[in-house]
Amino acid sequence: MASQPELVTTVDLLRHGACEGGDIYRGSTDVALSSEGWRQMEQATLQSTGWQTVVTSPLARCRVFAEHCAARLELPLQVVAGLREMDFGEWEGRLLKEVWRSEPQTVSRFYEDPAAVTPPGGEPTLLAQQRMVEAWQALMGQCAGQHLLLVCHGGVIRLLLSHLLDMSVSAIARLHIPYASISRVRVYRRGGQDFPVLMSLNAGGESS
After folding, report:
1. Is-contact 55 89, C-beta < 8 A?
2. Could you give the number of structural domains in the chain?
3. What is the pLDDT of residues 131-177, one digit of tens each?
4. Residue 147's domain is classified under what CATH number?
């Protein structure tokens, strides 16, 4: 009996570009891309690499550009609620430097051990990761064998990579995910088992 052929799914994880409002904790806050952010994403997707489906977070900074990109490339679009950014609770909408100044110990502990420390009133990191992973697994079932463009958030990319690469969640702050950068994951499936491989991290994107 012939062995089951290997099925390969490729996912390009595109972080959204710069947004209106500056350097704030925007998390679940639904803000628009700035003109610079739109330019960054246009540049990142200028050379289409064989995408077959565009998938996006429902938040406007991802979804509006994803709709534009899907229409331009004449591709189907999926909006996936589970791929929204985590909720930062009382930090939402506040400048990063202001939160660091007012709550330095809590912020520092959050970045050192996000599994144990949650922003006041925010979404626990492990619960956020769980919903993101569930959304990812559903996508792998629905779109197996395709090449996807997944437009999402820095936190989503970090938490998905933490899961896929079997990394500790405490290491996610060590992953630099710039605006409009693309990271490619290739998922090899054989016998019902997925083996994800990080093919590239932060192709393109802004350095800051």
Report:
1. no
2. 1
3. 999 999 999 999 999 999 999 999 999 999 999 999 999 999 999 99
4. 3.40.50.1240
